[in-house]
Amino acid sequence: MSNWLILLSILFSVCSINAQTSISGRIVNAENGEPLPYASINFGNNSQLLTNIDGSFQLEYDQKEIQLNISYVGFRSKTVEISNAVQYVMIKLQPAVEQLQSVVLSSEENPANAIIRRAIANKDQNDPQRALRHFSYKTYTKFLIDNLSKDMRLRADTSNLEMETIINAGRAFLSEKVSRNSYNSRKGLKETVLGLENAGFEEPVYEVLSLKSNPLSLYKNDYKLFETEYAGPLADNSFKNYYYTILDTTTVERPAYVIYFEPRRQEAVAGLEGLLYLDTLSYAIQQAKAQLLGAIKLEVNHYYNYHPEHDLWFPKKQVTTIRPGSGGKDISVFGGLISVGTLQRKDNILNNIFGGAPGDNNAYLSSTSTNYDIDLKGFSPIKTGAAHIEVLPGVEEQPETFWRENRQEIFTQRDRNTAALVDSVINARNIERKLEVKKAVGNGYYPLSFWDLSLNNLLKYNRYEGIKIGAGGKTNSRFSNSFNLNGYIAYGFKDHTFKYSLGSEIFLNKSTGTSLELTYTSEIKEFGAFSYQKKVNDFSILQPRYSNITNFYDYENLHASLEHRFTSSLETEITVSRSDISMNDSFDYRYLHEGRVYSEYQLAEAGLSFLWQPFSKFLHTPEDYVVIEHGFPRFTAQFSHAFKDIAEGDFTFSRLGLRVDYQIRRLDQSRTEFILEGNYAFGELPLTHTFHASPNNTNEYEILNRFAVAGKTSFETMYFNEFYSDRQAMLNIRHQLRPFYFTRSIQPNLVIVSRFAIGDFENKDKHTDSDFKVMEHGFSEVGLELNNIFAGFGLTTAYRYGAYHLPDFEDNISLKFSFQLQL
């Protein structure tokens, strides 16, 4: 018995000797209690620790007591001895006038500001993307979402956001990526993914590739992290957004100024707090640290290596960590909008990630990118129009030898356990199915086995058809990877008529978006409608104008098209079609041509359309192209020609449309949008194929009777069928102010709108039984929108002025509600 006691005593003594003591605390200003961010704490054998931006710190030591030496610029240094019985300490520093002898500058301004000015002035020599004509490197990235607690709760989720689905279900996600990066000054930076491993998924989750968790440069004006843009600490206008303070100078071989930066106007512009280590000779960034503490704790660390042959500091490593916080400031990640100050206070994905059950506050996200095989002279040709991120075929099938050769971070046993956990969670919770649903819904479909149900055909309403119900969709890859069958059938309860479509699309080359489609359709169509075949996906459950349209014509159309993507930014489509047009009870229209009156006619047409997005960034997978960052301007164009006496065509005419979209987005969440569109037609042109300016006002006498849903680009005070043109130009300007913050769920935004259209019409007398105007003097309206007042609903008003101002004041006013739903 005594031997056991001796043994236990020895073990206890050994454990006590090697036990780690943890202490946390905070450094504050003794006069006002304000935290001192990045105060220097020296302890042990020349060990150093910096406090967080809230003055907090935590350290571990294995002694009975420890001596802390705390220093901070402008404050008296202090030495504190702490025993291992203390678990928390608050240390107060007294302000003092202090000068940094190591900083010698001729400017009389704040020395830190003078250093920052020189760093900004030297960006052309220090930013690799400005200083070098070309370079190349490889990157290994480990993206991890884990839980520090032993008990990882499994909870059902209701979100269709892919990462939230994974985290809510299992609180774990692990992804590894190896990529080759090439840069040249003309075509920018391109990433080629060589290997990708997503634990638990049979197919790679490409969405994680577009997450901006590790931006390369801190020199840019905007610093984008996940889905939030922050003001760059070395932006050209950085003094508008940040305060700067010198904290220290390092004493290494290449000394650096340690500059603390903090946001100047946090409620207006998203900003981070942190440290810049700026080379005392070149003013280049040697190292940087940025933090955001609030609802979540965000920390980003940038590390650079010096390359003497180029006198350049090049990024070596970046570590981004997100942990639970205490409320206040938020960020955005995985498409969820999260506040910074009062910028984006909305319910979001991280609330669910880090919310969890009571006491479950240990989830964290970590993304580490390490650059290696860096060649600052390396030139790799970049194909014109290449995608920003290119995923090579077979990246998810790389052998273990590939990962052993390219891993730049230790793949721990915990990482392996996380991967195993994710495998079981994804299988148990059917996560891949939820990702499939999310992706399909974003394109207007809901997947049911081998069939994707169209959400656009389920329920509609307009004044001619009344309530219109239908069903339709298309087959998916479970049916065939080579082609699909598509179609729908719908019935209008007011016109008592079935409408339908049936077609098939053959995928000739998915990698280039090349496909051949053949479709037959029997439907109704609005007079004067001009629809671009190639356009940005604009699926919307609610279609504001459609419910108010009164003038339709019947058409039966046999349509064939060939789509092809020449570059990542250029999509094209060639079409040929044969249509039978006839009038119905909604509009008794006749077209007079060469002494004959037409109420029915045939059209044989061919056309070419394209969508060009030269400033957008794309992710190119073996299966598809995905826009990962919208850039402007964006161009859409379409030309079509109708042939007489070919396929029994009755008329010869041509139609041309060109649309340019441009946006100016600002860090304060305000933005200005411009849409300029021109349409031109000539030849034997019936009214059905002319142009209207997208009117959205019904012909009701009372204002309240005209109350409806407002569109985004439609003319809200222009009455339906009031104007038609065979040539027209339109300009739509929207300026959205920074959202007003009331609560997390109520953040309305005010939009000032101005619209103008001008048009002309030749041979107006050839269109019988129609009474419309021509916009030869220009139509003008101005409006206000207060959107997202609650649950996506808002109110809008517009006023009609200028040449077509009406005598009665109330006829020039529109009052409507708006609805914006984000899936």
TrEMBL record:
Residues of the signal peptide: 1-19
Keyword field: Signal
Chain ranges passing through the membrane: none
InterPro entries in UniProt: CarboxyPept-like_regulatory (IPR008969), DUF5686 (IPR043741)
Signal keyword on record: yes
Protein name: DUF5686 family protein
Annotated organism of origin: Autumnicola musiva
